[in-house]
Write a structure and sequence with these properties.
With 137 residues, the chain is mostly helical. 80% of the residues lie in helices and 0% in strands. The radius of gyration is 18 Å and the shape is elongated.
Length: 137
């Protein structure tokens, strides 16, 4: 029961990350200033720019999506152990470091996504570990 509450919190956080990444991709895709900057640096056209935005969007949402789906299905069959928490927490920390190194300080979604990744990490490392004893969790 306690792990189901944690999984729900993780799912809500992952959905929030996906929603804010969607807003950020939408704003970048509609921005003429970002397109002009992209065009001046790469010489690409609008199709290349939109492909670039969509690739970055996909890379932003794939990790929370995979982690949340894995936890939903794996907690029922595999149970949570320390190794699982370490690996998933490491994935989130790596994504957080990658997100911070993008240095997009002019976007409010940048700060919100960093905050949500920190919350995501906290929820992952605080999932209760499954114990073989039926009386404790």
């Amino acid at each position: 029961m306690k792990s189901e509450k944690h999984i729900t919190k993780i799912l809500i956080t992952a959905i929030s990350i996906i929603i804010f990444s969607s807003f950020e991709a939408f704003i970048k895709g509609k921005s003429l200033a970002f397109f002009n900057l992209f065009q001046s640096k790469t010489g690409g056209d609008i199709g290349d720019y939109l492909n670039f935005i969509m690739l970055n969007y996909f890379l932003d949402i794939i990790e929370p999506l995979i982690i949340s789906l894995f936890l939903v299905f794996a907690t029922k069959k595999l149970r949570v152990n320390r190794l699982m928490k370490f690996v998933l927490g490491g994935m989130v920390v790596a994504k957080l470091i990658l997100k911070i190194t993008k240095l997009e300080f002019n976007s409010i979604f940048f700060y919100l996504e960093i905050l949500l990744y920190l919350i995501f990490f906290y929820f992952i490392i605080t999932i209760p570990i499954y114990s073989e004893d039926k009386n404790e969790l």
